[in-house]
Amino acid sequence: MCYFEQTRWSCGYWRWGHFKQQCNKEYRMGETCGLKLVYHTIPDPDVCRLCHDREKKERRLNKMIADVERWKQEGNRSATIERTEGEMAIVQEQICAMNKEHALRQFSLAQGIVGKEQTTVENATNLWLTLPLLQ
C-alpha cells in the first residue's frame, strides 16, 4: 500500500504521479509493494491530452463534412468526394476509439494499457455504478 500522487483533469481522466511514501510492507529502499494508494490528488483545470486530440479530430471531421457538402453543390468532383468520405469514416472510427479509451480510463482503477484491458465501456460503467458506497 504505497502512496503516489494522482493528477486528475477536469474531464475526469487521471494518471498516477510521483511516488510519495513507502508502506510498512516493503522494507527495501526504492521498491514498492505493488498496491497504489492516492497520497494527494492534484486537480488540473484543463482537459487531458486525449480530449485535446479528440477535439482536433472533431474539427477536422466538421471541415470535411462542410467541404463535401460544398463540393456536391459545385459538381464535377466525384473522385474528391469519394476519397474524402473514406477519410471521414476513418476519422469517425478514431474518434470512437478515443471516446472508448477515455471512458475506460475514467472508470478504471488501474493504469494499464487501455487497449489491452478486457473490460468494455459498458462493463466499466456497470462496475462503477455497482460499487458499494462508503459510509
In short:
The chain is built from three helices and three strands, in the order βββααα.
Report on the structure:
α1 (about 50-75) packs antiparallel against α2. β1 and β2 form a beta hairpin. The protein has two domains: about 1-45, no CATH class; about 50-135. The two termini are about 20 Å apart. The protein is an alpha+beta fold. The protein has helices at about 50-75, 80-105, 120-130, and strands at about 1-10, 15-20, 35-45. The model is unreliable at about 115-135 (pLDDT under 50). The chain has three helices and three strands; from the N terminus they run βββααα.
- Please trace the helix and strand order, writing H or E for each element: EEEHHH
Rg calculated over all Cα atoms: 21 Å
Number of domains: 2
Structural class determined from secondary elements: alpha+beta
The helix fraction, in percent, is 40-55%
Instruction: Trace the largest sheet across and list its strands.
Output: 2-1-3
Shape designation: rod-shaped
Percentage beta strand: 15-25%
What's the rounded overall pLDDT mean? Answer: 80
Our measurement of the CA-to-CA distance between the termini, rounded to an integer number of angstroms, reads 22 Å
Which consecutive residue ranges, at least 5 long each, have pLDDT under 50?
113-135
- Give me the count of strands: 3
Helix count, DSSP H or I runs of 4 or more residues: 3
Main sheet: strands, sense, barrel:
3 strands, mixed
